[in-house]
Amino acid sequence: MTEERLSFQAEVSRLLDIVAHSLYSEKEVFLRELVSNASDSCDRLRYAALTQPELSSDDPDLKVRLLTDKEARTLTVVDNGIGMNREDLVENLGTIARSGTAAFMNSLKTESGEGKKDVNLIGQFGVGFYSAFMAADRVEVLTRKAGESQGWRWLSDGKGEFTISQVDNLPRGAKIILHLREGDDEYLEENRLGAIVRKYSDHIAIPILFGDGEDAKSLNSASALWTRSKNEITADQYKEFYHHVGHAFDDPWLTLHWRAEGALEYTNLLFVPSAKPFDLFDPKRAHRVKLYVKRVFITDAAEGLIPPYLRFVRGVVDSEDLPLNISREMLQHNPMLAKIRAGLTRRILSELNKKAKDTENAAEYATFWENFGAVLKEGLYEDYEHRDELLKLLRFRTTAGDGLVSLDEYVARMKEGQDTIFTISGDDVDSLLRSPQLEGFKAKGVEVLLLTDPVDEFWVPSVGVYETKPFKSVTRGGADLGKIQGGEDKPEEKAPEGELVDLLALLKLTLGEAVKDVRKSERLTNSAVCLVSDDNDMDMHLERLLKQHKQ
Ligand code: ADP
Ligand code: MG
């Protein structure tokens, strides 16, 4: 039997080095990651077996087992899921296809100081398997893929290389054998393992057993969490499920668990995170809601299940009506999916609206808004049907102070004679507040919305008006303050009209082609001049953004 020796991708080696040498506060999370992989692998087999029943028919009861050997000092996690062949092993346990590692390394650098690196976050970045090296100095994987006869052994001490060799007569699935590090004997104790499983993995839908054969004991409740009734689920169980399904580590800010009944039946368990996921602005804008049909996992990439502007939502949708053997490709065109999307969207927006209206907990909503507001705004031009609801969710920094302001609040305190919602856009609030274009508005006490998200350049022109009040940038030539009452009524020292006309003419002559026009304005109090764009031209900030991108 030949053995192949292969090198880890450089990134993986670096990651393993950190994992093995960091002082982690919660080493035990490695078990959560391995159990989570075992359960994912069973989910994938169950899905594949819908169209190829022979894949699982010889051993149809899917489960995870934990085995310990005190003499050999090994802890083994066994599953009878889909397994891996040689290519899978090289690809999944030797390289990192996704952007996860770089992001994970960055999180270690920024989120925690030297010496206390928070490896707990590892699963979020799609590199959970490697956490096995926190507790083990040698990891062995014995595996055979469903539908194939050849088995394989993967072995590594996590120091740059791994070996792969053929092994005959392996059962289907994967067996991960951890040769525990010195001092980690606690992971040989049934009680300790049981406690970890209950803490992190109780919601896993298949049995997690301790021991072999007849005396095996079940460590979890083994029913899909979303099928249980709300009053039987603790906040901690919801949280752990969210961590598992959302590859997340924060607390869910909002937990939505409900069952839709009627023409279509489906159960939903959805979460809005309290922290911003690292890949929120990934150009693919993929959502992270898993689709199940009658408790069978179908896909975590059902296009159209959730609109892209709600892609921060995590969780599962379990349909009773979609056909079990539906292919991922056919899903996209299934009208039931569109109906489910409409139901989910309606419900999520209405729950968000409740939170937005809850003025006693405004700080909570403000955090949500800081995290996801820029994403929600995409809906304003992508989803006309829900535009009104989305407009109610908007919050703005304004010239009136530090707090966040809704459009209704803005409109309610508009000045007499003001029929326009004034805006100014730029890269950040501080530099906007220093802008000379705001002087006149500040002097008259006219509030201006400060727009700092690139997406603002798209939704504002698309929405155009709110409650009959048009949005208008203060950098527009026509945005003048003449009609509006307010401010201290200082006796004005007006320049004689004739001199002003001469000055304007002189400026036009001097500046020539560089400007379109030179006008007198009410908007300035301290500065002598400012730049504005013509009513029909592009907004100045957008023009600058586009120039940066060489458009
Ligand atoms: P993630 O679970 O986020 O994909 P991991 O590092 O935990 O990242 O696992 C990497 C990959 O290794 C998985 O996506 C899967 O393809 C494979 N894998 C890990 N454990 C198993 C297992 N027990 N059975 C089959 N495949 C597995
Ligand atoms: Mg994993």
Report what the structure shows.
There is one protein chain. This protein has about 550 residues and is α+β, with helices and mostly antiparallel strands. About 35% of the residues lie in helices and about 20% in strands. The protein contains 18 helices and 20 strands. The protein has a nine-stranded mixed β-sheet with strand order 1-6-5-4-7-3-2-8-9. A six-stranded mixed β-sheet has the order 16-15-18-17-20-19. Strands 10-11-14-12-13 form a five-stranded mixed β-sheet, sandwiched between helices. The chain is elongated, with a radius of gyration of 30 Å. The two termini are about 60 Å apart. About 0% of the residues have low confidence. Bound molecules: adenosine-5'-diphosphate (ADP) and magnesium ion. Keywords: ATP-binding, Chaperone, Cytoplasm, Nucleotide-binding, Stress response.
Could you outline the blueprint of secondary structure elements for this entry?
Blueprint: E1 3-7, H1 10-21, H2 29-51, E2 64-69, E3 74-79, H3 86-92, H4 100-111, H5 132-135, E4 136-144, E5 151-156, E6 161-167, E7 173-180, H6 190-201, E8 208-210, E9 217-218, H7 235-246, E10 252-260, E11 266-273, E12 288-293, E13 296-299, E14 314-319, H8 328-331, H9 335-357, H10 362-376, H11 379-382, H12 387-393, E15 396-398, E16 401-405, H13 407-412, E17 421-425, H14 429-433, H15 439-443, E18 449-451, H16 456-463, E19 465-466, E20 469-473, H17 497-511, H18 540-548
Helix pairs in contact: 2-6, 9-12
The chain binds adenosine-5'-diphosphate and magnesium ion.
Measured as a percent range, the helix fraction is: 25-40%
Q: Which small compounds were modeled alongside the protein?
A: adenosine-5'-diphosphate, magnesium ion
Helix and strand composition category: alpha+beta
Instruction: Indicate the radius of gyration in whole angstroms.
Output: 30 Å
Alpha-carbon distance between the two ends? 59 Å
Task: List the total number of helices.
Answer: 18
Protein name: Chaperone protein HtpG
Subcellular location: Cytoplasm
GO molecular function: ATP binding; ATP hydrolysis activity; ATP-dependent protein folding chaperone; unfolded protein binding
Function: Molecular chaperone. Has ATPase activity.
